[in-house]
Amino acid sequence: MYVPFVLVNRYEQGGGAMIVVGTDGSRAGLRAVEWAAREAMLHRVTLRVVHAMPAWAHGMREEGRYAEVGRWMRDNAAAVVSEAVTAAHAAEPEADVSSAVVPGDPRSALIEASRDAELLVVGNHGLGGFRGLLVGSAALGVAAHAACDVAVVRELPSPVRREVVAAVDGSPRSDAVLARAFAEADLRGAGLHIVHARARGGPARSGEDRIARMLSEITAGWRERYPDLKPVERVVTGHPVDVLRDACADAELLVVGSHGYGDFRALVLGSVSHAMLHHAPCPVIVTRARTNGTS
């Protein structure tokens, strides 16, 4: 299973920021490139198309026993990148696009690239160098070690509800979810649906009222910052996977947090994250806490 990556730098700012998308030429990879091109235009940033290939072939001399194999692999890599650039321009003719072929394992290379980025977006159900990246430890390793937000790109539902869904749990990391969700909803001119999944079996009315107050408190600053947005806040009883899947069934985007607490504990590295990365019916962004303040 191939998984392409997109990297977005400083999503709330333009000028000098960049999206990087990794591709292998698969349908999923090209779909991610097209999505990345649209995101680049939306965020007013440049787009960089990246393809990773084995280091031994990338740096091989023109002479030698396996020189012909190396040339074939380099030519193939160049063709993959060229096709991706064409796809990007087809999706967004005005996009500012550059490209690169980089040596090494795709996961390691793109995790390293994430150090200068704000968002790492992952395509789903592709083929090639990223095979299995969304299965088991590989996907969790990428999510755990990326230095930026991580997103999974899949086909948008049809029709699309112009809404961003944000999953919050009240932990300090919920602020990163809200930062991304409010910014994305504002950029898209979409509605914002903020959801907290409440476990079954707890105190009935009093517990729900307490959580509702918590949601109101943690969103207050963001509502002031984005006065034109009118977010809907909901407390829903049920398992987080079921709650989120239902909430984002036809949404434009789902935003969740990493290493949260409560119902969303270990969202990136645990079963909830794993399930949503596989089964969410829309693109998913997994956020990371920011250290420079966002509110």
Describe what this molecule looks like in 3D.
The structure is a single chain. The protein has 9 helices and 11 strands. It has helices spanning 27-43, 55-58, 67-91, 106-113, 137-145, 174-188, 205-225, 240-247, 271-279, and strands at residues 5-8, 18-22, 46-53, 97-103, 119-123, 149-153, 161-167, 191-198, 232-237, 251-257, 284-287. Helix 1 packs across helix 3 (67-91) and helix 6 crosses helix 7 (205-225). The longest helix is centred in the first third of the chain and has 25 residues, at 67-91.
Lateral arrangement of strands in the main beta sheet: 4-3-2-1-5-6-11-10-7-8-9
Helix content: 25-40%
Coarse shape: elongated
Biggest beta sheet summary: 11 strands, mixed
Strand content: 15-25%
Give the topology string: H per helix, E per strand: EEHEHHEHEHEEHEHEHEHE
How far apart the termini lie comes to 38 Å
Number of helices: 9
- The structural class is alpha/beta
In round numbers, the mean pLDDT is 77
Radius of gyration: 20 Å
Spans of 5+ residues with little confidence (pLDDT < 50)? 1-16, 126-139, 260-269, 291-295
Q: How many beta strands in the DSSP annotation?
A: 11
